[in-house]
Structure formats: structure tokens, C-alpha cells
User: Fold this.
Amino acid sequence: MRRPWRIAAALLFVITTLAGALFGDRLLALSDNARAGLRQYTELVEAVHAHSGAEVSYKDVVYSSINGMLRKLDPHTSFLPPEAYARMRDRQQSSFFGLGILVGMRDDKLTVISPLEGTPASRMGIRAGDIITTIEGESTADMPLDDAVMKLKGPKDTEVTITLARRGVSTPLELTIKRAEIPLTTVRYVMMIAPGTGYFRVTEFSRSTGKEVADAIASLRGQGMKRLLLDLRNNGGGLLDQAIAVADQFVPEGSTIVETKGRIRDSFHKYKAEGEHRALDLPLVVLVNSGSASASEILAGAIQDHDVGVIAGTPTWGKGLVQTVYGLPYDGALALTTASYYTPSGRLIQRDYSSVYDYYAHGDGVGEDGEESSTGPLELPRGDEPVFFTDLGRKVYGGGGITPDVLVHATEQPELLQFLEARNAFFEFGVEYTNDHKVTDPSWTPSQEVLREFERWVHAQGMAEDEADLDKGFQDAETRKDVLARLRAEIFNATLGNDVRYRVLAEGDHQIQQALGLFGKASDLLAMRKSTKGDTHVAAGTNR
Assistant:
């Protein structure tokens, strides 16, 4: 047998092994048609490799064909090559071993965004704005961000040597740092955002999210929390068991959190709250947007259907397909859709995906101004979407995703702000400013002189071809106010850390500020639940 055919035969083994991972002994009973199809596939792989006008590897052909096959099923079934599968497992862990820095690409340079407090990086004096030029002697100039992050990670107590370029320091700084355990926190910015009002943001659902939420609530209770703003914006989901663990802390014990339904018997499950944590029992507002998907929609849907909180923001993504991950030989995996998610009232979370373009390019699907009832349950006018009812009889809508009780759209940034952010101007200036000015007081605000210094700096960087347009943008009073707030945030990031930066940004976040005005409605909802407790004449899940 010639070598190409041996390779093709090996690829056939990969395909049949993949099938075997799913169907087990049934593979032995493949029909003659199925066997003929697999033989035809190996012949096609060889023909493409041998005669294609562009050089193509067997691996690329097989991976592309697998992805093409899976694309016919649904948008979320996918083949995970070893690298992607490893990254997925890393994201789901509660910790890793590394240096403790947030890094990103700034002007194509691997840049420290912020060192994490108490980590090896902060103890070694690494600062925001430092550029990592080499890792173990290898230049980072053309290194992809994911590759750089993997090189910075490693086994516990092992060392990694990096070289830093720092503004104002002419000589490169070479540091050898011992890796330590770094927690992967998914609950961030835990703070009292207003008197009596707690706040935190859940960025995804990993192995520790349930405990992190419990710890955050306990911490905020200790600070006198009387109400809670839970931020799920841009939370793309994660582990189902952790979404259930979080929902258990908000919905009544014994109530349904989510149901899964599929084609086979094993795909039918009903998950209920087990009451492992003390019930929140406080007015709750939950922020969502079109970036909230999957596990975050499960949580928001359970909170809404059981009337324990007001959902605000814009409609969620509508990703309600359950993926079961099957490990494959050679460290790859198949994430196969096996069921769909339904909220406690019976709503299907998954949005229609008959048009893949519309599925990925959809907008919020509603007008700019959401209406709400002034006397009764919160409602939004909808079209032909199926209507369902919450525990208290409020209308909620199917058709995919979670429709907020109150629509709150994000405001668009002024053009000048977008222009400067796209060029990392605020971040870069914040780093340079703090080289000469030590800002350690959280109440500090930049003066008009700081703003003028920033304007001169922007001109000196040659960021705009038409400086007159730049000056015109700075003359607008509201824009100047926004620029000052962003300068304050990035200067704090360079000196006091990312949490202080976020607090400043929250002050100018329209959705957060509007959500803070909804606790009256959340209090009314909580009072209605308590007044009807034990009344069984309203049944969640009734489709009228």
C-alpha cells in the first residue's frame, strides 16, 4: 500500500472512531451502504490531496469535512481539535498556574492590562502598560495571544523568564518569576454600587461559579446589602450544573430551574432548586443583553418565571441547545447537540436558526422604547410569539431568548470617544501619566488641566489626520465629560487596579444607572410573591 493510502486509511480510522465514540457496538452493524460511503470518503480525501491546485494537508481536508458535516445539524454542534478542546477545559477550571496578569494586544504588542493583586506578577512589580517582548527568550512580536498565554502558564512552582519594555525605562527588564496558583474568578466587581445596593457581574459559568456567587452574596450582606443588581451582560454561558447552582440561590426551594428535552429518553431532565443556600429574599434586578446566552439565559429565565427579580436590558441571544461533549482519540472532542433548554414556564430558549446569517447577525428585535404597565405586571408588547405565564400570572414570551421585563438600551458613545478608544489612547495616556503622577486617592478626579494635557498628548501622537476635527470633538461639553471619566478610569487602572477602574466606568454606564431605578418594581414583585405564597391557583408553565 502506498503511503498516501496508508494516511487515508488512518483518517478513515479517525472518522469511524468518532462514530464509535457515539454509537459503540452499533458501529459493527453498519450497513453496506454506510461502509461504501466511508470508502468513497477516503477516495475523495485522497483525490483532493493529490490533485488540488493548492497544497492541502490531509488534516485540513478531514477537519474541514467534519465541520461541513456538523454544520448541517445546527449552529452549535462542533468538532473540537486538541488545541480548542484544551482551551475549553482550561476555561472551565477554577484555577490555573501562572503569573497573575491580564494581558492583551495593544498596537500589536503583548501588553499587561493589569496585574492581579497578591499574585507573583504584582509582587514582582509588573505594571499596567508593561510590554512583554520575550517569553523564555522567544520574541512575542508575531506571537498569537493564545500562544503567549499558554507559554506564561505552566506547572506549579516552575519558573518562566520574561523581558519587559517599560515607558520611561531605557533598559529592558528581565524577570524570572515562579508560577503560582491563580484563581479563575467568574464573579467580578463585587461591590456596594450605591447605599444599600450590592452589585456583581458573572462573566461565565465555570466550576467555581456557584460558590463564588454564594461568597459574593455573603460578603455584600455583611456590608449591609438591602437589594442586589446582578449583571449577566455578555455572559456567553458555560457549565449547566453551575447555572443550576447559582439559580438555586435565587428561586424557591423545590421549584423548577430548567428542563431539557431531546429525541431520546435520556435527554429528558427536570432540574429543581434543592435549597442548598439561604434564599436571597431581597429585591433583585438582573441585567442582560444580546451577549447573554445559554447558562445565563437559564438563570435569567428561572428568575423571571418565578417572579423573584426584574429582568432589564435587551433581549438575550437565544442559545438553548444542550451540547454533550464526547472525548475522542488524539485529544479531540465532539460537542454534539442532544437536547434543548426550556424555562420553568415552558418557553424554548433556542432561537430559530433556519437562516444561519440571520442567526448570527440578529439585532435586539424590538424598538428603542420598551413599554411597561404602570399598575399591573410588567409587560412588553409583542407580535405572534407564544405567550406563557409566570408564577404570578405575568405574561412572558417564547420565540427564543429571554425578553426583559423592562427594555434598557445601551447608549452610543460619542464619535471622539470611539476614535480614541480604538487607538488605545486612554490606556496609553493613563500609563504615561502615572509615571509622573502618583494617584492613590479613589476620590481623585482629573482637572481641566489634565484634559488639556491629554489633548496635547493626542496631537503629539499624530493620531488624527485632521486635527481640526479632533479639536472640534473636544469642544463638546458632554464629550469632554465622557473623556474625563474615561481618563479617570484608566489612570486608576494603572495605579489602583481594574476593580477601581470598573467602578468609575459603572458611573457612566447607562444600563447600570437605569437598572438602579428599577428596585421599586423589584420590591413590588417580591411583595406580591410573599402575599400569594401558598396560593396554588396560578401555575407557571400554563400556555394560554
Summary: Residues 3-23 form the longest helix (21 residues). Residues 165 and 171 are 8 Å apart (CA to CA).
